């Protein structure tokens, strides 16, 4: 049986991560605060750089080519957000200059979203 193309692409991208993706992954893979992050996660027909599924949070790293892709990225973000995902974007330069700050922002956002989901489920209608 042939594998679906998005999954094969995600596997290839996991093998060929950029140095910026590797730097962020080294921080997120440790399951900070018990959060599970995935690399190159298929979502809504796209492959996100990173995702925390429990928080419905996608993290995208943007390089120098990003200025040329802003319209496509905006459409992609709109589709993801319409399907309940929040998208966080970081410039690659941020991962060089302040990787811990980026990781802290990601972790705090994920925890905030999870708490909000739990509160919504627990509150009576």
From TrEMBL:
The record's InterPro entries line, in alphabetical order, gives: DUF559 (IPR007569), Endonuclease_DUF559_bact (IPR047216), Restrct_endonuc-II-like (IPR011335)
Q: Which domain of life is it from?
A: Bacteria
Question: Which intervals hold domain DUF559?
Answer: 8-108
Q: Which residues cross the membrane?
A: none
This protein is called DUF559 domain-containing protein
């Amino acid at each position: 049986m042939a594998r679906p193309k998005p999954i094969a692409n995600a596997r290839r991208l996991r093998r060929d991560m950029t140095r910026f993706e590797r730097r962020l992954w080294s921080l997120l893979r440790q399951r900070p605060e018990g959060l599970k992050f995935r690399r190159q996660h298929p979502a809504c027909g796209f492959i996100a750089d990173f995702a925390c599924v429990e928080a419905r949070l996608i993290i995208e790293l943007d390089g120098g080519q990003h200025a040329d892709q802003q319209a496509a990225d905006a459409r992609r973000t709109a589709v993801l957000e319409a399907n309940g995902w929040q998208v966080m974007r970081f410039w690659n330069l941020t991962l060089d200059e302040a990787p811990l700050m980026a990781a802290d922002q990601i972790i705090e956002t994920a925890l905030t979203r999870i708490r909000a989901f739990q509160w919504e489920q627990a509150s009576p209608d």
